Amino acid sequence: MNTDANLKSKLGLNVFKYDKTPHIVIKEGCAKDERLKKALLVCPAGLYSENSDGEVELTIDGCLECGTCLIACGPEVLEWNYPSGGAGVQYRFG
Ligand code: SF4
Q1: Of 41, 69, 73, which is best to mutate to test ligand 1, by the most ligand atoms within 8 angstroms of its C-beta?
Q2: Least enclosed by CB within 10 Å: which of 12, 29, 47, 57?
Q3: What is the chain's mean pLDDT, rounded?
Q4: Mutate which of 8, 11, 16, 24 to test ligand 1's pocket (most atoms within 8 Å of Cβ)?
Q5: Looking at the domain 3-90, which fold is it?
Q6: Residues 6 or more apart from 46 whose CB is under 8 A from it?
Q7: What pTM was estimated for this model as a whole?
Q8: Nearest to 65 by CA among 44, 34, 94
């Protein structure tokens, strides 16, 4: 059984509505911070990636609003807020 494909297909059932501004932002100058690299390991939706320059990038589409990245990395490197009303994730039995 391919659990990665299974997880992605389940997460794909959720609906994500964009907010006016991203509800999570990597703080300026922190893209290469070692604390931020923990997000690569802990985000259950796999939304963090590392580019060829060693900078961590975030694709906000599909965020589960679980807060794991904030707990793992800390508020020193991430600006984290819930999306405004009506925006963000809508769970669909994923
Ligand atoms: S809040 Fe959860 S799903 Fe969203 S980016 Fe952080 S760890 Fe990933």
Answers
A1: 69
A2: 29
A3: 92
A4: 24
A5: Alpha-Beta Plaits (3.30.70)
A6: none
A7: 0.89
A8: 44
